[in-house]
Specification:
Blueprint lengths: L7 H15 L5 H5 L2 H13 L13 E4 L4 H5 L9 E4 L1 H14 L3 H9 L2
Antiparallel strand pairs: 1-2
Helix pairs in contact: 5-6
Amino acid sequence: MKKKKTTGRSKCFKKRDKWIKKLGFITYQNYLKSGIWKKIRKEKLDEKNYRCFYCGVIANEVHHTRYTKPVLLGLGDYYLSGLVVLCRNCHQDISDFAKENKLHEGRAFQLKNNE
């Protein structure tokens, strides 16, 4: 039986889901509905004046570039650096790019940022 190759993208989501469960959430979607995430999300949006990192339009989506405990819980001095404010279109572009290239979300952001 041939072993399925693990991609950066699948490793990223496995790590995310592991942390989500350790933090007491059943799914990532449950986490996104939580008060913890709503507070962190608002903090990041406020920090960037609700402006998309790429195109500068008014934005209301926050993209995780890292799924670490500090980022997921809003702990420490640098957790906001694991997040980026994006408009819906740019967020979709990053997600599609990551999916097409089987990349970790953070790596997809880095590559798109260097284009």
